[in-house]
Amino acid sequence: MNVPLSIAPVFRGRALATIGMCWLVVVGIAAIGAPLLAPFDPLEFDPLVRLSDPGWPHLFGTDHFGRDSLSRAIYGARMAIVIGSGSVLIALVAGGLVGMLSAYFVRLGHLLMRIVDVLMAFPALLLALVLMTLLERSVLNTVIVIGIVYATTTARIVFGMTLKLKRDVFVDAAICSGAGHASVLFRHILPNLVSPMLVQASFIFAFAQLQAAALDFLGLGLPPEVPSWGNMLSEERIYVTRAPWLLIFPGALIILSVFSMNLVGDALRDNIDPRFKDDIAGV
Amino acid sequence: MALLDIRNLELGIARGSELLPVVQGVSLAVEEDETLGIVGESGCGKSLTALAIMGLLEGTAVRIAGGTIHFQGRDLLALSPEERRRVMGAEMAMIFQEPMTSLNPVYRVGDQIREAILQHRSMSGRQAHQRALDLLELVRIPDPMRRIDSFPHQMSGGQRQRVMIAMALACDPKLLIADEPTTALDVTVQRDVLELIRSLQARTRMSVILISHDLGVVSETCDNVAVMYRGRIVEQAPTSTLFSNMSHPYTLGLLGSIPALDHDVEWLDAIPGRVPTLDEAVPGCAFHPRCFAAQGACRTVDPGAAAVSPAHFVRCHFPQGSSS
Amino acid sequence: MTRPLLEVRELKTHFSIGRRGFMRRKSVLRAVDGVSFSIHEGEVLSLVGESGCGKSTVGRTLTHLETATAGTAMLDGRDILNLSPAAFRPLRRDIQMIFQDPFASLNPRLSIEQMLAEPLFIHGLARDRSEARERIAATLELVGMDANSMSRYPHEFSGGQRQRIGIARVMILTPRLVIADEPVSALDVSIQAQVLNLIKRLQRESGMSMLFISHDLGAVRHISDRVAVMYGGRLVETGMKRQIFETPRHAYTQRLLASIPRLGKRIG
Questions:
Q1: Around B143, how many Cα atoms within 13 Å sit in the side-chain half-sphere?
Q2: Domain boundary among B170, B188, B210
Q3: Number of domains in chain B
Q4: Which pLDDT tens digit goes with each residue over C37-61?
Q5: Does B320 map to a domain?
Q6: Is B41 helix (H, G, I), strand (E, B) or coil?
Q7: Pairing of strands C95-98, C177-181
Q8: Do A173 and C92 touch (CB under 8 A)?
Q9: Is the entire prediction scored with pTM above 0.95?
Q10: With an 8 Å Cβ cutoff, are B195 and C192 in contact?
Q11: String of b and e for B140-163 (b: at least 16 CB within 10 Å)?
């Protein structure tokens, strides 16, 4: 049944997705409890212990400023969540509105969807790069840019799903009851888009991580002092031979998290309206 | 010996560790050249019975929980999947309700019929092509030379169903199972398809099981009729006997539900209530909550099949119309 | 005979079905191609025909779900086909539609109460929630449903019950004309009879007029006063029920009647 999207059946009999979910819970706890969990201040320099090996008290070692890698990784989880949720919010609201309105009002759709097509002609990373070069490096701008990039794919997907829903008989029935455009769109169509959009959100969340890491790595994402997994990779990349753990730990965190979100996304997708399964094929 | 002999077939749907019964104690026999009709509403188990005969339940949630299905004296349920596949298609064939979904939209109908032929016969491509043409002609598709190169979407619903029948006949089956073959078609087309099945049967002497929700269709085409309700055969008789002497309250209810065409009635004698879902266990006779004749025993004891006249069986404590 | 409630003259609904190739002319599907009929107060007119004959399009055009290409439909001396969507909206209360598929016609995300309250509030028939609930409960009982079912969702009901809910959504507005588009053909035989009886009873009790669109001639005979037979976008024969069923004049009507499988008859 596609009515209330409950969590239990989503993970029943899916060991991998369950493990993925558990990992995401760990990341979430790290993000929320960062100040309590982190053994050191992630920004504090300690020239005495530059590039120390993993061990006690620096479990993940230290970087070339002597900052504690574990603490930076824990605060990095916070950035991962902020970037992920922020981009998801922007992508779903902007993309969702554009997609829904375009499918419902055909003439408007001709215009809006052509713009979306143009934006989608750029590879996601290239589009993000272009936009980032126009803006200052900040957390907010990174979130906005990644949000816009994935708003385009979301708009396409929501456009397709709304076209299908618009032809549903219950929409005809609502019109016959006298429902106006706003009511049809937001009362009858939107609630049916919620669970597929939730699935879409989980994929955007995952890809936003990769996108943000890539921007950080290229020196265009978050300001360099902000502890994020991407920045950790970017800053320490020249020490790859001397202190490989400085790249291995954040790299592994990114891979694990993205993989987990994709697993959860797949599990969610198998529990939505079968008509929409083909619409959401990742971002 | 009957061509097909089903004894006490039991099917269940696996729900967790439980097996919810969907077909219970179904026994049917189909003689050579006979047409058996199975009538019932959705969920009564008529289609599942057909799928069980065809061995098409594998990979579904439905399990065979008991009984035997003898075809030409061999127990199909005891055969290995390999042997079974050889019997299927070569000896029996099935057509379905929706001819569009049963045909592959990207292949020409001629190719699909040829494929069906070559699966069971070894012959050259040219021979198979000729056979496909013959079959299209047999099922009365106009201009088969041209139609053989059509794609399914270029044909009407009636023509697609004829193509399905042609494919089913590709290997001269002894038994054809038709599951609601005309439900998706218009009445005028339905008439043609039913007449086609009838005439093909007269010509090839194959047996037919016709599954339908429509008493009229069954009445016009079948020799014997079995009425199913909630997984059980509740009444079974030769067609003429059944329609002159309906005994089970459910059969009577179905009849009362159909508006007459040649006279006016003020209100239809509808059966009250609805079919209970699989999860709702009904003690006693499964029909008693909707039955006008239900009495004490009906609520506790599931009636067995009893003969009200030779070859006319009813599963009811209080069969109606006790004439003859 | 009373004056007609609805008078349809030369109704045409054409669809353009895409261009065949670039720069070619669009091809046109003449789904409804010049149909005229009238429905009197309290009368049931059936529109029968086979799939693709355009009978459903007639109903969808009269409810503005499709746009008419030409023709008029006078309701109380006012042409409803040429009205703008905004001008037609208040009239929707008078012209309601029952849909075929009870599984598709109810929004899975809305409770029965939400679904039935919507038309009440749109047309200003209830001031607040308690007033709406009262009316919803009465209407649910009218269609043979328990008033407690209003807090439940469509997937909790069987096909027959859903169709009753669909009928409740129509009846709650006390419309003057109901267009019933194959209202029972998606239901099981025993449930069809219940719903047909219900529709007939509601029509009798409320005195509403009805356009009953169906391919099922048995249901048509059961419910209608007059019958119009449609073929290829046009009406081929219109007449009183008895005349159509007992002395059909048009060859197509005769063929249609002869095609229906009958009990106790046998082919071949």
A1: 5
A2: B170
A3: 2
A4: 999 999 999 999 998 899 999 999 9
A5: no
A6: coil
A7: parallel
A8: no
A9: no
A10: no
A11: bbeebeebbebebeebebbbbbbb
